[in-house]
TrEMBL record:
This is DNA polymerase IV. The active site is at E103. InterPro entries: DNA/RNA_pol_sf, DNA_pol_Y-fam_lit_finger_sf, DNA_pol_Y-fam_little_finger, DNA_polymerase-Y, DNApol_IV, Rev_trsase/Diguanyl_cyclase, UmuC. Its cofactor is Mg(2+). The lineage of its organism: Bacteria, Bacillati, Bacillota, Clostridia, Peptostreptococcales.
Length: 350
């Protein structure tokens, strides 16, 4: 069973405005086009109480919420804050799919910690470094994780487990099925389908003429909790690592060193195949009491020379406190460059 998180920032643009100008806190903020034909990009939760929402005309929003604070929006700033949030998410896992400026899926199947623990940590870090609140959905596939992140918004965590299906979904409007748009919903409404419970009663063959072959199968599966879409990591990898949890807790420095060297050989081989080098070596240790430390060392230059990397590992491991037993050890190489780029850098240098 996979473990997927869906992360979504709460009232993103409006929240950034609030953080940058604390006098706006708790006020109805509406970000979007302020001209006559402007459209609302988003509204703070305070403004949503008046019925204001994304994609509504700003004129309509003014009617609904005359005391609202209407702001034009600063996209460079939102991109910058988005970057900060993604930097935090990337410390959790490399298996991350950016869906939009404020939304991502993370595959945490291989993590040791519980999903809820990881979700709470992520929320804490994002709050600490950016001031933003986010909502996180936890489940065993993308569809359910996204549904879950929406469940307790804002500042929510919600987990959907296999045993919740289909009961939990039954009372929901069919509009909650991501991929089933308003037009299709209207079509289904006309034949008496309003909730997922209604839709569950429909055999696949009856859905085909209404939704088309592929979408019929997709939606038929989704409402039964089936969604096998992978997380597609759409960015260059920033680090390459490997770690292991020992079958028993260890205090043997020599053995830990051997394991880390073995891992680094594998990683370097892999990097070389791709024509890449790294500049930073990071060792991660988790002790028997679950306390975790990471120690990094960066070189002045990129390398894929295994002896240089061994030397760094030796130095780092020798500087680490091993008076406590170790349950997990790992290594990663980061600050990656392509050799081609390296040559360009040298060229510019001389
Ligand atoms: P959303 O995540 O859909 O909305 P949100 O973050 O403002 O609110 P919440 O997640 O708490 O429901 O979109 C993220 C940002 O994208 C949003 O802050 C503004 C922008 N956006 C638009 O510009 N136009 C739109 O129609 C939508 C839906 C979003
Ligand atoms: Mg959002």
């Amino acid at each position: 069973m996979r473990r997927i998180l869906h992360v979504d920032i709460d009232a993103f643009f409006a929240s950034v405005e609030e953080i940058d100008d604390p006098t706006l806190k708790g006020k109805p903020i509406i970000v979007g086009g302020t001209g006559e034909r402007g459209v609302v990009a988003t509204a703070s939760y305070e403004a949503r109480k008046y019925g204001v929402h994304s994609a509504m005309s700003t004129q309509m929003a003014r009617n609904l919420c005359p005391k609202g604070i209407f702001l034009k929006g600063r996209h460079d700033r939102y991109s910058e804050v988005s970057r900060q949030v993604f930097d935090i998410l990337e410390t959790v896992t490399e298996s991350i799919e950016k869906v939009s400026i404020d939304e991502a899926y993370l595959d945490i199947t291989n993590k040791e910690e519980s999903s809820v623990y990881i979700a709470m940590e992520v929320k804490k870090q994002v709050k600490k470094y950016t001031g933003l609140t986010i909502s996180i959905g936890i489940s065993y596939n993308k569809f359910l994780a996204k549904l879950a992140s929406d469940w307790n918004k804002p500042n929510g965590i919600f987990e959907i487990q296999e045993t919740d299906i289909p009961q939990l979904l039954k009372p929901l409007s069919i509009l909650k099925v991501h991929g089933l748009g308003k037009k299709t919903a209207l079509k289904l409404n006309r034949i008496g389908i309003f909730t997922i419970e209604d839709l569950l009663k429909y055999p696949l063959d009856n859905l085909r003429p209404l939704l088309g072959e592929l979408r019929a199968i997709e939606i038929y599966d989704k409402i039964r909790g089936i969604d096998n879409r992978e997380i597609s990591t759409n960015r260059e990898r920033k680090s390459y690592g490997k770690e292991t949890t020992f079958s028993m807790d260890l205090q043997d420095k020599g053995y830990i060193m051997e394991i880390l060297k073995e891992f680094s050989c594998e990683i370097v081989e892999h990097l070389k195949e791709q024509g890449k080098s790294a500049r930073t070596v990071t060792v991660k240790i988790k002790y028997e009491d679950f306390e975790q430390i990471t120690r990094s060392h960066s070189l002045e230059y990129h390398t894929s020379d295994i002896r240089t990397i061994f030397d760094i590992i030796n130095k780092i491991v020798n500087s680490i406190d091993l008076s406590k037993k170790v349950r997990l050890a790992g290594i990663s190489l980061s600050n990656i460059t392509h050799h081609q780029q390296m040559q360009l850098d040298l060229f510019n240098y001389f």
